[in-house]
Amino acid sequence: MVERVIERGREPEPEETTSAYTFKWFRDRETQLREGTVVIRGKDIRWEQNRQSVIKPYLNPANWSKWGSPEWMMFCNHIKKQSGKHVHQGGLGIFVLQGKGYTVVDGERFDWVKDDLIILPVRPGGCEHQHFNLDPDIPAVWLAITFVPFRMACGNEARQKEFSPTYDGVEKFVAEPTQHVT
Questions:
Q1: What backbone phi and psi angles, to 5 degrees, belong to 163?
Q2: pTM greater than 0.70 (yes/no)
Q3: pLDDT the model gives residue 9
Q4: How many CB atoms lie within 10 A of CB 101?
């Protein structure tokens, strides 16, 4: 006679409703904002060569889950000669930490020096811009800051028009660039 063996399978977990998921997401986000890291140590962030220039990306979508203030993009930019040229919606603040140079926005030149703040205008279709260092002995270094939900609401367009002369076609981590001490 053949014995029948019946295995009882596990009952499926109840499906989570959209409302339950949403409230859980808000609670998790509140916890992140309350408990997220407040100080980002520069020594813990590596410099990267990309099509724009050499940057140190402090805040970006890849690491937002760690910080107490996600959805901001903040990075230092190190420019020996010039950055790449690109277009995006604007709404970006750039604080010059070192050097002197100029930025061309939609064909118009704007000069800047250390301690200046550059504000890229928000324009339909974006604003084309490129940054230039005027001192071959001292690199231009600045901190760029943008709030990503604002950028997304403006259309989030981004087009690369020209590459930085330091870009060899491969995005990669690089040694810390030589800084000029002022």
A1: -90, 155
A2: yes
A3: 76
A4: 24
